[in-house]
Amino acid sequence: MQDLVVVVNLNGSACRMMAQKLRAEHFYCRIVSSACAAEDIQRMGARGIVLAAGVSGEAADVPFLMDYLQTGLPMLCVGDSALSLCQTLGGELSEPVPQDGAMQIHLDASDALLDGMEDTDRYQPTARFMSLDGAQATPIATTDGGMLGFHASRRDVWGFSFQLERNDPFSSHLLVSFCQNICGCTAWWTNQALIDRAREEIDRAANGGSALCSLSGGIDSGVCAVLGNLAIGHKLHCIFIDTGLLRKNESEQVMAYYHDNLGLNLRRIDAHEEFLTALAGVSDPAEKERIVTERLMSILSREAAAIDDIRLVIQGTNVTDTLYRPHTGSTIDGLPIIEPVRELFKDEIRQVGQELGMPAVLVNRQPFPGSGLASRIMADVTAERLDILREADDIFRHDVEDSNQNKRLWQYFAALALSPFPDGGYVVTLRAVQTAEGAAGNTARFTADLLERVTAHILAQCPKVQRVFYDLTPSKSYKRANL
Asked: What residues does 160 pair with on adjacent strands?
């Protein structure tokens, strides 16, 4: 195991920012949930722990904080996790103090972590200052109001109650210093290093036998399929399960790109009727997702049983899946599952795809839910409703692309619902999100001309659609952004 630092996810955006800053500096980090036990972190061979929290002014809930301290591993607590650390060490927190303008933060450059760093500043509406007995900690980041950062005595443990910022050089310097100077890690992480490691892992697990990869057409499973093909060639059996829940022409595009252009050993399975039957009469989104997932796993299991000398299953799981979605297990019918990109965010997986030479049309494919268009129909799923939504979605996407608006968007799509108005029929809702990964993102501000053009095209091509709306609701969470 090469050097690694564990980032404990206490706040999604803070965790993502810190992990990506570390990887940009070529330090290998693994993201784990706040429920990860200290012994699990030790088994990973971690050389340090980063607690990535936001700044709400309230001590973060860190279930295993004392256990983490007892490992003796270096630890960096940022944001609200520093408040928790302060209290755990017997310190006290001030009441929230309103801040007028930027806080000028004086750094003790003689500290091992802050070696050579200059003073910095932070804009935040309020601050909670920490106080600890001198025998417990040394102040290393202070303002006129009090202490915002400390180094715990006789431990390689630091706490900073202010937020690290995405474009701030101090934030990068702090994380690099922690990994390099405190944890003794070397900077080895690159996309090519991940590719080499994945190929070796797949080849070793296959051990001369075959493997199965379910290819949805998305970037996660696509990168995994290409990695598997590089590792074991045509001993990798890829299946594309055509659920009938895909976007317009998507089935043909998947086969053309991956089978015809990339030369993968790929077979299409027509499962339209199977999924329509299973979803009949179901309108609850969670139940739709459960049914689709179960049917996909059933087909995957059936196909695996038909492959001679199969040794493993390759699955396109990303880091967001591991943190926010139920774990589906580490085996399928006793076959081990390998997840080559499970530690990466979506944009990082796209970078690996580019490194692998995959065409832009595959690398930049929009995120799409596992339950497909079924999750974008706000009613039970029928063949007619799928056809209407498929057409409306295609019109919206093409009109956005024709106006050259798509390059600034993370995701844009249509959803379908039964009309509540007296004229009956259906209502189409359009949505476009700008922020990467969709977390806490803003909706795109399209011109009235574009929205009127899209509406006219949908009403002309989809006679049963009576109304078209544009959704301006900001994304509040990962789940909402991944409809």
From this structure: 78, 149
Domain map (residue ranges) of the chain: 5-182, 191-364, 382-481
First to last CA, the chain: 37
Tell me 443's DSSP state.
B
Q: Which two tokens stand for residue 285?
A: 């989104």
Residue 259 C-alpha from the chain's centroid: 27
Instruction: Tell me the C-alpha distance between 301 and 295, whole Å.
Output: 10
Residues belonging to the chain:
483
**What local confidence, expressed as pLDDT, does residue 441 receive?**
64
382-481 CATH: 3.30.300.10
CA-based torsion, 352, 355, 359, 360: positive or negative: positive
Cα–chain center distance at 403: 29
Distance (Å, whole) CA 323 – CA 318: 9
The predicted model gives 369-373 an average pLDDT of 92
pTM of the model: 0.87
Domains 5-182 and 382-481 share a fold: no
- Structure tokens, 139: 């102040």
Q: Under DSSP, is residue 255 helix (H, G, I), strand (E, B) or coil?
A: helix
Residue 338's beta-bridge partner residues?
Answer: 314
Type of residue numbered 357: G
